[in-house]
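From the shared-data thread, chain only:
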Amino acid sequence: MNLDAIRVQLLERRDATQARVANLAKRPERGEAQGFGKRIGDGTVEAISRLTDIGVGTSLEVTLKRTERALAKLDEGTYGTCDACGGPI
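Structure, as tokens:
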């Protein structure tokens, strides 16, 4: 197992994930945000888009935590070992 190559891949994944999370967390520029409206159906596309972004953001945060854990395991010398049972992965 080439641990140096794995570290490079994990660092690239971490940086890309952090950038995506930051992009999702940006506040919309003034005049760019839309309200949901008062009638049924008003803003439905916008609402679905926001819900999708929340789901994507949650998934990205999980990916980021797992990537950080893998990097920590590399530093600890336990990469490739299961946290739960101690067996090889």
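The CA atoms of residues 1 and 64 lie 22 Å apart.
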